[in-house]
Here is the input.
Amino acid sequence: MKGYFARKLETMEDLERAKEWGEAQEIRVVAEVTLAKKEYDRFRENLIEDYGFISQHTQKTGVEDGQFLCILVRKAGTKHTAIAVESDGYDYTRYAALVRI
Here is the structure.
């Protein structure tokens, strides 16, 4: 899986524009999180906030062998798109990419 990553984004709109900023990067999923619609909608419009579901997995994220080690965040019931989060040791979305799965 590949994605166009951007740093310290605030909203989903910012994330969708990331394709214009560089090359797609390889992703390795280290954890998966499924959020209820209301939680996911809040997350996608406030990416820069701290989240418990990120802090639970943040030590697993990073970059290794040219791959972004990411938490895959999905909305419940959605099977084809997700947000790949590389928090780099932080409790918020430090780097993110919108991905098709």
Observations:
- The radius of gyration is 12 Å.
